[in-house]
Each structure stands twice: as structure tokens, then as C-alpha cells.
Amino acid sequence: MKKSRKKAKKHKAARRKPKAKPKLGFGAHRVHRNSVAKHKPKPKARRKPKHKAAKRYKPKKKAVSKPAGKQKRSPSPKGGRKSSFMAKVDSIVEDIAALKIQGAKDIALAGIKCMKIAATESAATKTEEFVEELRKVGGKASAARPTEPALRNCINIILAKVDRYELRRIQNIKKYAAMSCDKLAKDIEAMVTKIAVIGAGNISEGDTILTHCHSGHVIAILKEAKAQKKNFRVIVTETEPLRQGVQTARELLEARIPVTYCVDSAIGAVMKKVDRVLVGCDAILADGSIVNKIGTLPIAIVAARFNTPLFVAGESIKFDSQTVAGMPEPIETRSPAEIAQYSELRGADIINPAFDVVPAELVTALITELGVMKPELLRHELGF
Fold first, then answer.
1. Which terminus of the chain, N or C, has less C-beta within 10 A?
2. How far apart (Å, rounded) are the C-alpha atoms in residues 260 and 272?
3. Which sequence positions are flagged as catalytic?
4. What is the pTM of this model?
5. pLDDT tens across 334-350, in order?
6. How far is CA 332 from the centre of its chain?
7. Residues contacting residue 365 through CB under 8 Å, at least 6 positions apart
8. How far apart, in whole angstroms, are the C-alpha atoms of residue 179 and residue 185?
9. What is the pairing mode between strands 276-280 and 310-313?
């Protein structure tokens, strides 16, 4: 028994010896290490990438902290609401300046909309602060198109009503300002409806009418004449540089009104076929002159040469009372890039006036909500 125990011990010792041999060759040593790794995997070595991944998550923690920082900058809803309504106003003003909103009537309505946004969304807690905000908004809108008295007049009407309002509590005056905006917008739409009916009465069966640019009043008159079952044709000029006549032509075609489209320089060639010229206007001056899209003056001169009557449609709110005192109507000059690039014409002075001034003697009559009249008589109708 003792011998068998000794043999067993020797056998165990013999089995342990290969594990403890330090003097194995290089290749055998590598095998030994690999064999140990197979039987005893090292979890710690595999956890190291997890620690690296944890470091990668640190930027996420920073990203979470950023919104908290932004909230601290505007903790009160007052500041947020204030900047929000001004952003809306700026967007509309940009559309006016970029001619995305066209036509004096639509520009005026856009200005009224700006004022209503200020009235309904202002966070002002004092009347003086609120009125100052309205003035700021009105100034921005008016500056977008300087040759638009209808826009300026609408802004001034709203501001005058607010100034005269007796109840000076902030909530009352805000509601009154918003109501004034709504009423003025409805009044303008009612003016256009009246002008459409009056103007349609001046269109005869079989007429050929020439128009220039895009005017909501002209469109309204022609649609009303169509509704009265009158047959007529409209010649629409291209109206460079932004081809605003395209919009006019599209709207007339949608109303099933026959359209002939031509370039601006063709007015001499087509005028002998025209029975009357019908255009809108952006401003009516004290001496009866009218301001309209550039190119209107040559049309008026050619029309006079062919004895073709020229009618101008526009509501009385387009009258510029500043010209009564002798102040000139500001004529907007737009970017030269609308017509040519400086690189194409190096050394040239590129000009791009947006409007023409047509003298009263070239205008047959004004078509307003007050009736048909000589342009120089409008100031007397308005009490100037």
C-alpha cells in the first residue's frame, strides 16, 4: 500500500512538472501561455474596451447640458414670446421687400397683418411699451417698400386709433388695436369690391384692353366684367425685370379670360389694336400724377399718341397726403442684380428704378371706390 501511495505521489508530481518548467523554448513558452489563456480567460482584459466606451459617452453628457444652458438664457416666457412675434413680422417684411407679396392692396394687407401680430402676441405689460412696439413694427413694414402710401397710411391709421383710445389699460388697448386691424382689412377689401363693380361698368363688349404689371384692382375689375357676361380680350405686358405680368396672365387665364402676352417693348406694335389701357397704381399724388410700375409712363405716352384712353384703378387710401405739402414721392430703386451682373458690364452704371410717375394730363380718369373722376380732383374729395 505504501508503495502504491508513493507511486501515485510520483505520478502526480510528474504531471505537475511540465506546468512549472521555466526553461522551455520560446515556441513552447508561447504554447504554454496560449493554453493557459484557453483554460482561464482573462475577463479583465476584455473589460478594458468597456472603460474606453464609457469615456466616449462623456460628450453625450455635455450635449444634454447644452439645452439646459439655453433655457437659462431665456427663463421667462415673456422674452420668448416677444422674440417669436418679431420673427413672424420680419418674415412678412422680407416677403414684401422680395416682391413675394405683390400689389399695393396685398402689401397694405400684409402690413396690417404685421400690426395685428404685434397686438395679439406682444408681451408688453405697459401701454407705453406696447405702443412703442407697434411703432417699431409699423416702421419696419413701411421701410420694406418706400413707394407705397397705402401701406404707410394703413400703419398710420392704426397708430392714430391706438393713440386716441381712451381706455389705457394694457389688455384693453391690445384688443382694440387687433380689432382696428381687422376692421381696416375688411374696409380695404370692401373698397376693392366697389372698384371692381365701378370699373367693370367702363368695359364694353368686344373691347381689347392692355394692362401692365400685376394689380389686384385690375384683376378684380376684369373678373367682374367676365361675371357680367362681357366678351373682351386682354393684352398683358411681360413687365420686366421680374416678369410680374406672368402672374397677371395666369390669373386671367384661370378666370377663362382670353389673354395675349407680349414683351414690354411691343406696346407700340399692339397699341393700334387696343381700345383702352387699364392699370393699377401704387400712389396717387396731390397734383393728380399717379405712380405705378416702371414702364407705365411709356405706355401712357404711346396711348396718348394713338388716342387710347388710360384708366387707373386704385382706392383712395393710396393718396399720399405728404405731397400736398410739396414733399416728393420717394421712388424705390431696386438691386441692379435684378437686371444684370456687374461682371457682365464692367464699368457700366446699372440703374433699376421700380416706378414711373405718370402726369395727370396723360390719365383719362381714376377709378376709385368714390367713383370715376379726374385724378387731380381726388384730393378735394378727401378734403385736402
1. N
2. 14
3. 213, 282
4. 0.74
5. 999 999 988 889 889 99
6. 18
7. 309, 311, 312, 372, 373, 374, 375
8. 10
9. parallel
